[in-house]
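Supplementary Text 2. Reproducibility record for the structural model of the 203-residue chain.

All settings were left at their defaults, and a single model was retained for analysis rather than an ensemble. We include the record here because the model underlies the residue-level annotations in Supplementary Table 4.
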Amino acid sequence: LTFNIDSAISIAESNIPTYKIGEDRFSYNDSLVNVIIPDNVTEIGTRAFAHCRNLKTITISNKVKTLGHNVFLECNALESVGFKSDSQLVTLGGGVFEQCVSLKNIKLPDGITDIPNNTFWNCVELNEIVISNNVKTIGTKAFNVCSKLNNIFFIGNAQEFEQINIANGNNYFINAKKYYYSESQPAMDGHYWHYLENVPTAW
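Retained model, structure tokens:
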């Protein structure tokens, strides 16, 4: 079942230029499997899709600027979160992907500067993540219990990565392999990566 959110909002909401998907709007909705957020959504409120047990994929439009707290809390089947390349997302609430136990990889939009507390707490299958050099802080337990986190693909260099303020409870993030972006294969040894057919790939 592919579910476009436009079909679930009221006519009044769909006739305005931009709107917010409100707090708890679709929480505990087991009919949601594949969700596409339409272009006129600018904010997704707290727990808007929490506990949607069958939700597998979500595509978030480039107009969304804010994801509230615990938006996808305990979406146990969630495997894919897609952001457009020109995403305007700048704000994540705490625990956005908390206990998304099927999520294996994700690329956060370049506008994100803070990965707050509990963002990926208990994402036990999370294996790799792409973050940009705009990230400056990682909150307490943002990657706690992410025991399979192996690869961090960083859009920046080692010096920039070392400037990130990493709070307590992120040992799995700290111990994961770090790869630094390079469009061409570097002559020197080290951990570098590039996109190969839009997939993060180590040189």
